[in-house]
Structures are given as structure tokens and as C-alpha cells.
Amino acid sequence: MRHYIIPIFIPHYGCKHSCIFCNQRKITGRDTPVRHQEVQAIIDEHLARITEKRHIEVAFYGGSFTALPLSMQSELLEPAYTALINKKIHGIRLSTRPDCITHRILENLKKFGVSIIELGVQSLDNTVLEASARGHNALHVFQAMNLIKKMNITCGIQLMPGLPLEDWNSLIHTAYGVIKLVPDFVRIYPTLVIANTQLATRYDDGSYKALSLSAGIIRSAYLKLFFEQQGILTIRTGLQATEDLDKGNIVLAGPYHPAFGEMVDSYIFYCMLAHFIESILPMDKNDPIIIHHHSRDTSKIRGISNQNIKQVKHIYGIDHLILKQDGHNKDEIGFEYNNLYYVLNKKMIFFI
Ligand code: SF4
Question: What is the pTM of this model?
């Protein structure tokens, strides 16, 4: 059954921190607190619109839900919980900070039927967390995850490659830390420079260098592939495009693109193509390479605007690449070349 999310944006209200990349008003499009009646109205409005059978979830996004006073958390959750017990929705999820999780808070969330928590982890490198003024360290993340798991609540994490002082070593350290955390899923949001943030000031004075689009794609692809190989699902790469983000004066720098997730997937397939070709070098460039694959992978193999194919042809001087959709599994390519047949899947590709 397809998912339907009823999003409720909780702005910066309640959060005592000031992460250098954060301007929640710009990201969520709100700057005033949400109250009980408003939550009720948003849920009613969405439910009235849904005509097909869907798995419906109410999702509290945008701020640090569990940093709100407990009474306000209960006030906001109550309409969602009523919809849940009346079987009008199927789940309640929220996002929050790792250092705003206690046993008491989790008991209250359980009482109101919350089944999924997303932790804004961003990095597991304390130097990066400090440079980003996160106000928590990696230990808080492990403690929070431990408590959440003990309560049998599904827990996902959000990561932000590209924060100040992050380099490849730091990113790899984070990736291995995530494996130890064993989250139920991951979202990867490369760091963007949003207007009116401390990061924007640092970007302007030259003390922060934003990731380029290609660097953001490569770091995200590394994380996604590494997690996938360890059995951890990445459910999103790149922020969802919104009217606000697309305006042009909100995202000042950083790897933002409405098709970012697609670009990451295409890059992983580019790596598979390049990996195979490197393994048969030196090759006879007149011999065709036939790329057998699942029909759902064709656009990822081609890349946006056929970029992967053009690049492979350009870099390796290959003239004859033939794409053939057939019985291969998704995420697997069969390469036919010179009377030989090689099969590669995503588990066989390594970045480093
Ligand atoms: S914890 Fe979240 S809401 Fe608070 S300042 Fe940081 S990013 Fe913004």
C-alpha cells in the first residue's frame, strides 16, 4: 500500500540550540509555534482529501519535537493519537535531537502511539559536531539510540555530509559509527548554506567552503552504498524540493538539486560501469559491450541526460555500448564483452 504522510512542521520553537546551518523558518516555511487546534485542522484537511487506500502517517517535522515541554508534546500528539485509535491513520512519527531523549519522554511518546523517531545525528565526529554548534556529541547519539531501541520504537537517523571540518576520514568514521548504531533507516541531507544562518556568514567571509554538487553526490553515494552493503536502508538522499528552497535566494551554496537522489543513484551505476571497464583494460574499443539489466535501472545506468554513457565513452574512448533490458535483478548488471559474460551488483562496488 502506498504511503501518505500528513506533515506537521514544528518550527525552531522549543529548541535552545543554534546549529550553524539551521534556519528552520526557511526550511519549514514557518516561524510560529503550532498548537493543538492547528494539528487537528491539518489532520482533518488531509484526511478529507485522501480518496484511495493508503498507509497514512502523521509526521512532526522541522524542529526538535522532544525539546518542547512535555505538556506541549502531549497537546500536539493528542489529535494524532485520537486519529490513530480511531483507525483513521496508521502511524505517528517525529524528528528530534539525540540529547533530548530520556526514558520519561519516550514513555510519553509511546503512550501517544509514536512508532518512529528520527534522530538528527548529522555526524558522529565530535570535532565536526562542535564546529557545527550542535550542542551534543556522538555519545548522546549512542545513548539515545539505546533508549529508543529498548522501548521498541523504530529509529532512523539523519546525516549531513559536508559540515565544517568534515573530511573523508571524518565521513568514514561516521559511516562506521552508523553501522554500530544499527538504525532502522538513514536519510542523507548534504549540508546546504541557507540564507540568514551562521553558516551563510562563514560562507560569505570564506571560512566555510560548501560542497560542490558533484562532491555532495559522491559523499552521499559512498554513504548510501556502504550502508546498503551492511543491510541498512537509505530512504532519502537530498532535501525534498520545496517552493521556498527553489526560490534562488534561500539556498546560497551547497549541493542542492531537485533531482539529487536520482543523481546519487546514477553515480552508483556510473561506478559499476567504470569498475567493469577498468577491469577489462586494455580493451579492443571496436568490440561492443552489451549492458544487460533490469528495466527499472535503465535511467540510472544512462544517468541524467545520458551523462553516464557520454562520460564512459569519453573517458575510455568506447564507441559501442549497447543497453539491453532483460531478466537481470534490479541493481545488477550483466556485461557481455568479447564472448565473456560478467555480472556485477552493488555489493561488489567499493569507493575506498
Ligand atoms: S537542533 Fe534542529 S531546530 Fe535546533 S538549531 Fe539545530 S537544526 Fe535547528
Answer: 0.92
